[in-house]
Amino acid sequence: MVDAVHDFVLFLSRLTGEPAYDVKAILALLMVAITCGVMGSFVIGNRMAFFSDAMAHTAMAGVTLALLGMVVLAGVRDTRAAEPFRWAIPLVMAAVGAVVAIVISLIQERTSLTSDTVIGVFFALALGFAGLLLPALNAKVKLPLEEILFGQLLFVDEVRLLMLAGMVVVTLLMVTLRSNAFLLGSFNPSLANSRGLPVRWDNYLFVALLAVVVNLSVYAVGVLLINALLVVPAAAAANVSANLRWMFWTTLAGCIGCATLGYRISSRLQFTLGPRPDDQFDLGPSGAVVMTCVGWFFLSLLLRVVLRRFFGNRVRHDPTTCSHDHDHGLYHQH
Fold first, then answer.
1. Taking a C-beta distance cutoff of 8 angstroms, is the pair 101, 126 a contact?
2. I want to staple 218 with a disulfide (CB 3.0 to 4.6 A). Which of 59, 130, 180, 306 is the partner?
3. How confident is the model over 49-103, as pLDDT tens digits?
4. pTM of whole model > 0.90?
5. 324: containing domain
6. pLDDT at 1 over 50
7. Which residue, among 47, 50, 14, 10, has the nearest Cα to 186 in the 3D structure?
8. Domains held by the chain: number
9. Is 2 a domain residue?
10. Looking at the domain assignment, is residue 14 inside a domain?
């Protein structure tokens, strides 16, 4: 499979005339953008921006647990011996994230604590566990933690591309099968229960899926990009959408557009600090994508003013505050 991905990248490189590393970076960005675009409207609709941020930080706990397993179970004592086990790191990250997400949901159901309080506790737990063991483990194994935790968009390899492709397929499949249940369970649980939908299990499925998406994306392209692509385009879409269906498709288009445009800006523009050639610097691609997302958000605020002026009866509310609405066609009759 890895060889097939490598051949596909070379084919696209010859077809477009772009370097192979550019092709891989764009493919990774597009796959992350598609996944974040699909999940982003649900995240904003469920008010889970802080939750998704906490899931990104559980990546540190996942990496720590993966290294601990290498050292204790596999007897790894140096960097070379750890190389055959690197495939396990994203799997452990995703598994730890999914478990933490479900435990957070369980505690929220069984206590009177607010969601941000429970999330904050596990946020501290993940960072504390990583701070406790990660320095000592990395001194022994010496893996490139900056690359694992923060991503290197220009150095995405074929293994990461294959992992992202699998993530896109699973996410699209889950959302296609359960999108109505996710929406209805979030905005009108009593109606969902009356229709016989397993609201609790759908919630567990959604938070576990979100945790897996966040952690695999963090491993591939870094924390900076995943947080921006998952939240900001969806927030912009909420500004210009009359209902949740429009918001879903606007979020998806915004994610893909911002990712593509931001990367192109970083590859075409430079900034300079002086008159000499060595005073010119390339823009960071991840930062360029993030700033493009933020720019789209502020533009959406202006567009909202225009839309409310000409279509005031359609753009009067935040679509994320809607409950069950047959007029908008948000849910299908089961």
1. no
2. 59
3. 888 888 888 888 998 898 888 888 777 766 676 677 777 888 999 999 999 999 9
4. no
5. 23-328
6. yes
7. 47
8. 1
9. no
10. no
